[in-house]
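Might you be able to review the protein record set out just below?
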Amino acid sequence: MSKNKLLRISVLCLVLLLAVTVGVQAHRMIVEEPEDGQVKARFDDGSVAVGADVSLYDIQDELILEGETNEDGIFEFEAELEPHRVVAQDDAGHRAVWESGAEPSALDALPMWVRAALGIGILIILGALTTFFKSGSN
């Protein structure tokens, strides 16, 4: 296969991929650290997770309380409770976990679209490197 034809196919695939994914509004759920008897469940686009099921667990990983978030995405509980782990999930399949002492990764701070763009960029670079090294061996 000629380099020109391979390049055309690669560009066509990239354009099709971008055209298909432009309308996707993916977002992930985030559970904020519990504070003053409240825990907030939200999405990384800033919207709140209304009606999400929330479960609080103690240090032995035993369930201590369950409930739902209100219209502000907040689940309220007695301030004396000190959850070690909080799990929130909704009917759409989103799920988020907060755990005491867990360090968030650097990728967690990035919006989903940035992470997707980085992944696509890495694939493009790998494809270009493969094409470059293959053409050098001919």
In short: The beta strands are 29-31, 38-43, 53-57, 63-68, 74-76, 85-89, 95-99.
